[in-house]
Amino acid sequence: MKFEQNSNSPEESPDSFASFDLSKVRGSYYDMLGVLPTSTSLQVREAYFRLKATYTDSNQAIYSLMTGSDLAEKIKAIEEAFDVLRDVDSRSRYNENIGITERAGASRTDILIENISFPPVDEGMRKATRQAKDQKIRLVAGQIHRDSSLALRIRSIFESAETPSGSTLKAMREAAFVTFEDIEANTKVGQEKILLIENDDFVKMPPAVYIKGFLKSILSFYGIADSKAFIEGYTLRVESCHKKTK
Q: How confident is the model at residue 150 (pLDDT cuts 50, 70, 90)?
């Protein structure tokens, strides 16, 4: 697979390329999945699911170009790459082995997520908790509430927040491996509103009363019931900003 930057990865920037030698990436697990060493855990997972959906017996275009054994080998290679890159420790060791600066350019969100232990992903769980719609992987409503290990990971991030901020919500989203589309589908909060909140873009936000409702829906989606203090603290920041800009 020819290695190229994924245009659907908004957190990656041209500056990311300066932190490692692309020649070290070619032929690597990153190349196999079509992601960069700076890609987040969510982006690695999304790339994996896209490839799994492409290389399948039901895809006639692929099936006509590859033999059954070739397809099996391709799927095996994709699984091997994902199993290494999805785990923080094995990914760190792999980066060291191929001479890449560990998580160069990692954001604060990445660092928060790297403190969480992710259990192995069971193939049965993938099928049971995910469904394809309009060629996008969407979260089945209630998954987080049913998955105790997932709920604990999200809870850990929520409780580690020193102040109510969008970066905490972003870390929770990426730790849960969900997209803006997943949240919108389950909360009815528009993707542009979710992005404003995660970026703490108070100036462009609607009045605090609306933000309070958005936060309540989003935190409820993550299974956070005791969200009052977080919501009140966040909306106070919104109100303070709006007063200054009047």
A: confident
For the chain, how many structural domains are there in total?
A: 2
Query: Is residue 117 situated within a structural domain?
Result: no
Distance CA 185, CA 201 (A): 22
Gap between the Cα atoms of 225 and 243, Å rounded = 29
Backbone angles phi, psi at 226, to 5 degrees: -90, 65
Domain with residue 55: its CATH number is: 1.10.287.110
Please list the helix, strand and coil fractions of the chain in percent, rounded to the nearest 5, in that order: 65, 5, 35
In a domain, 62, yes or no: yes
46-67 tens-digit pLDDT? 888 888 877 765 666 665 676 7
In a domain, 116, yes or no: no
CB-based contacts of 48-52 (< 8 A; 24+ apart in sequence): 48/78, 48/81, 48/82, 48/86, 49/130, 49/137, 51/78, 52/78
Of 40, 27, 15, which Cα lies nearest the Cα of 178?
A: 40
pLDDT band at 113 (very low <50, low <70, confident <90, very high): low
Say if 76 falls within a structural domain.
Answer: yes
CA distance 85 to 102: 12
